[in-house]
């Protein structure tokens, strides 16, 4: 690594000089082509007028380059900065001179009026002028090319490969500083360009979700990249190999005998009205919302129960249009919660019992879920598996028939719903068009209380299971950061990572 500092050791230590050089790496690369040309192409005078043309520097070139002020030819300039020669003695120290010179540059470069492309362009021109002054090189055509490259960088790799001053020359502190600034500005621009691209990609993906708008408000580049690059939003289940399904036209797929009147199905005969687990109660799960006559919501009583909904459908005597709110009717926003990764909220007011959305993703077999879980075990703490196990009776049944919804790579917006020990949503199993397929149904979110706009939506990942107490926290399990007064301290008991279970 060459010594790139011509300052006395007291001003720039070798370590600092080296690290500055490293920092300026890609700028040095950018500037390489500037110094390949012989010194005859552009005189210092031309350089000065070009720099002034750029509208950057109110002062003269001489005032910006005091070490050159007394020299009119590149020859002299070369001798001046040649390490073999001596730095002329002036009234001020080299550091003072550098500070004085550099002091005026950042102000202009940081002008809030200038956008990043302008700033790069201006800085590149300034840098070009400085290189011309110091090394007496720079061909206008080549300069234009370099300016074009740094002004409109497509990516880091489009910049030239390396830069070093001509043999026997050192970079002045001012040039080093300019190069470093250019590097920072280019880096900032590349990052902003990258973020803009990611946002665009993500917005396109979000735009393909059916129903009211789903938006993303994500400031963290890493989270944004994860979502834009490696996640696909889906509007229905994605069935994977080995998942067996009973066809919709199966003879076992029958509807209720109700002929449907304005009171809905008859609880005494309706086969769709669900039967609560461990009871013979037939429950009517819906009612018209007390606060919004146009809204059908899950009843308060139903939200307290552990039950599945068999929704009436086209095979029913009532023609299936009575109880159900078909499709999502609220807007959603994915946002960065900070400590718990991404989360979900709605800008709309949600009424207690209001249908929110489905939990969609890849439908896989239990064996496949175990394989996927083993593959990711230990590499992260996030889990996106939800068991569809409402009708599973025993271990054998589970091994043979249980399906799991995996939302790690494919999913709906609800896959961003985080856990809370005091949740405002509930996930309910809902069988819709195919009541015959007892091993496959929808996982459906409802508001279990009124929810103000902008409130994070949460549900209990161990809903329906026995809960541990805060005193029983397993230090090896995923700690819960819901922040509620009744927080149990962990997401899943006993190191369990899968979050799904019977509701
Ligand atoms: C289904 S994802 C929820 C979305 C997730 N936050 C993300 O950024 O993709 C479940 C994961 O979110 C995180 N998480 C959810 N609720 C949490 C909580 N209360 N405390 C800590 N982490 C939580 C855990 O990493 C968990 O494995």
UniProtKB/TrEMBL annotation:
Organism annotation: Penicillium bovifimosum
Keywords: Chromosome, Metal-binding, Methyltransferase, S-adenosyl-L-methionine, Transferase, Zinc
Listed name of the protein: SET domain-containing protein
Domain Post-SET positions: 476-492
Chief location category: nucleus
A UniProt-annotated Pfam family: SET
SMART domains: SET
GO MF, one annotated term: zinc ion binding
One GO process term, biological-process aspect: methylation
Keyword hit for Methyltransferase: yes
Regions of compositional bias (Polar residues) in chain numbering: 7-24, 40-52
Keyword match Transferase: yes
Residues of the SET domain: 330-462
Residue span of region Disordered: 1-89
Domain of life, source organism: Eukaryota
């Amino acid at each position: 690594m060459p010594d790139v500092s011509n300052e006395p050791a007291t001003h720039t230590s070798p370590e600092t000089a080296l690290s500055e050089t490293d920092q300026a790496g890609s700028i040095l690369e950018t500037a390489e082509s500037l110094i390949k040309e012989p010194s005859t192409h552009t005189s210092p005078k031309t350089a000065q007028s070009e720099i002034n043309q750029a509208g950057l520097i109110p002062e003269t070139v001489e005032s910006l380059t005091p070490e050159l002020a007394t020299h009119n030819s590149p020859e002299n300039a070369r001798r001046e900065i040649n390490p073999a020669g001596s730095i002329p003695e002036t009234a001020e120290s080299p550091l003072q001179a550098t500070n004085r010179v550099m002091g005026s540059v950042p102000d202009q470069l940081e002008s809030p009026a200038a956008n990043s492309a302008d700033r790069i362009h201006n800085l590149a021109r300034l840098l070009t002028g400085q290189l011309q002054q110091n090394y007496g090189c720079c061909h206008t055509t080549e300069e234009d090319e370099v300016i074009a490259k740094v002004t409109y960088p497509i990516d880091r790799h489009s910049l030239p490969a390396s830069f070093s001053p001509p043999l026997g020359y050192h970079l002045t502190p001012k040039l080093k500083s300019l190069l470093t600034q250019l590097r920072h500005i280019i880096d900032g621009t590349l990052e902003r360009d990258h973020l803009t691209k990611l946002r665009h990609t993500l917005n396109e993906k979000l735009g393909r979700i059916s129903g009211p708008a789903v938006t993303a408000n994500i400031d963290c580049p890493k989270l944004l990249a994860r979502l834009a690059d490696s996640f696909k939003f889906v509007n229905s289940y994605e069935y994977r190999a080995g998942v067996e399904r009973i066809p919709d036209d199966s003879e076992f797929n029958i509807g209720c005998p109700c002929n449907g009147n304005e009171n809905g199905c008859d609880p005494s005969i309706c086969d769709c009205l669900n039967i609560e687990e461990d009871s013979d109660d037939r429950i009517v799960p819906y009612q018209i919302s007390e606060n919004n006559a146009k809204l059908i919501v899950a009843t308060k009583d139903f939200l307290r129960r552990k039950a599945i909904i068999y929704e009436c459908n086209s095979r029913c005597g009532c023609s299936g249009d009575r109880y159900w709110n078909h499709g999502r009717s609220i807007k959603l926003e994915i946002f960065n919660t900070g400590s718990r990764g991404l989360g979900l909220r709605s800008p709309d007011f949600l009424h207690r019992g209001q249908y929110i959305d489905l939990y969609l993703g890849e439908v896989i077999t239990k064996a496949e879920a175990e394989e996927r879980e083993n593959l990711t075990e230990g590499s992260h703490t996030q889990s996106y598996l939800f068991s569809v196990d409402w009708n599973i009776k025993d271990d054998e049944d589970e091994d043979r028939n249980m399906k799991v919804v995996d939302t790690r790579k494919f999913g709906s917006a609800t896959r961003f719903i985080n856990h809370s020990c005091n949740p405002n949503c509930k996930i309910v199993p809902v069988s819709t068009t195919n009541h015959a397929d007892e091993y496959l149904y929808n996982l459906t979110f409802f508001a279990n209380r009124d929810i103000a706009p902008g409130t994070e939506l949460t549900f209990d990942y161990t809903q329906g299971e026995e809960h541990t107490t805060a005193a029983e926290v397993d230090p090896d399990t995923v700690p819960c950061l819901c922040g509620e007064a009744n927080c149990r301290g962990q997401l899943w008991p006993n190191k369990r990572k899968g979050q799904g279970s019977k509701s």
